[in-house]
Design brief:
Chain lengths: ~325, ~325
């Protein structure tokens, strides 16, 4: 939620002149995007987003992210599209940062998703996975099982500042995940960060999906495990099986699970909870009280992890009863 | 540059339903406004700003600010206008805060104003002053000469952390200002914070003036003294007489100075420099290094104050040569 890099009116006007967008009518830094700086720009051609990529995003990954958005949009998924300048470039530079102009997507994100929203999400996620099949580039998931131990060790014993005994609990969990993590599931491009604030709705319908800056190649079912964590728990940490059922049913109607995907979903959900727990613990321990971006509460994901550890079968998520 | 209060999609939709604006298509927190939280909202009726008034703005002042915008706009000054809901209310409440919907003003603010921009500013400021004459409400200027000593004393000896000897220098200056401050100048509604980021341009023309949350009744010429400080110095602290002349000439073409206004402008400019210096010193000493809003450099205004102290006549600002 911050503007990290200031852009002047002169820089912006010179930059926009290379596009077929007419003049700039206004631009405002917007308080979204933990990783990047975003400006909402009104041009004569309509509203657009100017994104400046800050240090946490690797520059060599940008062609993957931008190319993916263009590919998914061309395949019919509603998502922002990088605009090409007159020389055909999507990735440019402004104020010393890599930058791109992206089409603006109308819509609101839903603070308290209902089962109906979860059903819409399932269909959109399946569509994203199917649309991604033809995308030629690839990018490994740096935050999959192999990336968790370094994160765990970076926080170390200080993990217990979050909750007593958490360091040991996560150590045991990590061993289990490393030993039992499924490796032969159907693979493809996953969004990898499809939280409610990355899915826009207009009324009951999804108007689009945003923020592809964690997208990568991994097990498709892992993406739905992330969504189970992000969409199907209540504020009091209770799992809502109605929402999970809606999500899983609408997803599997468009892309049915293999038997193995069905069997390992609880393990994938534990892994997804672990992945977000580890980054939240790290951010919590390494962000000062008054930093620009407030860290998210790790304890929410401790409770989610424990819940999934108690799940014996995907039937308990509401699928295949 | 911050969003202090979060608004949910549900709160916003319920709020907007009371206006004739159609549905909400999108809303983004924008990183502008040191005092308030601002959202840029796309509605079916077009873009608008939703402002939530935070603690630094006194709620009892809001009818003055909102009424002034409505009055000035009706008088032909380009500025945002508070939108009334179906019951005729401009001031409402959302997320526990006083709030208003304001029309969105296209335009860019100029990071490095030219003499031409200063000329445009002069005419607009005169128009603002003339348009304000018929406004029935009034609000004293809490940050005029009577408000400076409490601010000075609140920072106290720590003022020397900004520059060696500054505490004593400002003490002497304050005595002079208190003794010689002119009190019989033509009065009216002044903007009182007309810095470049509050004036929007489209090409060479001013598209409007924003941020009336320091507006008050005071000497009209004091407003132009603020602009001399905010618009007519170069980044290296050199006074640019070409810009000042352009500003003063275009202003006085529309509203000529009285003889006394002409005579006391250097003293008003010293006072204006003092006013912004004192708040910057206070903010500098009372903001932690990682706060959401970074304080502005007080030393810029030390140099401006010293410059105006060296000025013997308004002729040195380029007027009446």
């Amino acid at each position: 939620m911050a503007v990290y890099t200031e852009v002047s009116d002169e820089e912006l006007s010179a930059f926009i002149a290379d596009y077929d967008l007419g003049n700039v009518l206004s631009f405002k830094g917007i308080a979204e995007g933990v990783e990047n700086t975003n400006y909402l720009i009104h041009t004569e051609a309509g509203p657009h987003i100017l994104t400046l990529y800050e240090k946490r995003v690797k520059e060599e990954d940008l062609p993957f992210f931008l190319g993916l958005m263009e590919h998914l949009s061309a395949s019919g998924l509603a998502c922002p599209v990088p605009v090409r300048d007159r020389e055909g470039r999507m990735l440019r530079e402004i104020a010393g940062r890599p930058a791109a102009i992206i089409t603006f997507l109308e819509g609101l994100w839903i603070r308290r998703p209902s089962a109906e929203h979860c059903a819409a999400l399932g269909a959109t996620l399946a569509k994203l996975h199917l649309s991604g099949q033809g995308f030629a580039m690839s990018r490994p998931n740096a935050l999959s099982v192999g990336g968790w131990r370094p994160l765990y060790e970076a926080s170390g014993k200080r993990t217990d500042e979050i909750a007593d005994g958490l360091y040991d609990e996560l150590g045991r969990e990590l061993k289990t995940l490393e030993a039992e993590w499924p490796r032969d599931l159907p693979q493809g491009v996953i969004h990898a960060d499809l939280f409610p604030d990355n899915v826009f709705f207009l009324g009951r319908n999804i108007s689009g999906v945003i923020d592809f800056y964690f997208a990568c190649n991994d097990a498709l079912a892992y993406d739905i495990a992330i969504c189970l964590n992000a969409w199907c728990f209540e504020p009091d940490a209770a799992f809502n099986i109605t929402k999970a059922r809606a999500l899983l049913r609408s997803y599997t109607e468009m892309r049915p699970f293999s038997k193995e995907e069905f069997d390992v979903l609880p393990m994938l959900a534990r892994g997804a909870a672990m992945r977000f727990l580890l980054t939240r613990v790290y951010d919590w321990l390494n962000t000062s009280a008054e930093a620009l971006v407030r860290p998210k509460d790790p304890n929410e994901y401790v409770r989610k992890l424990r819940f999934h550890r108690s799940v014996a079968s995907t039937r308990e998520y509401g699928l295949g009863e």
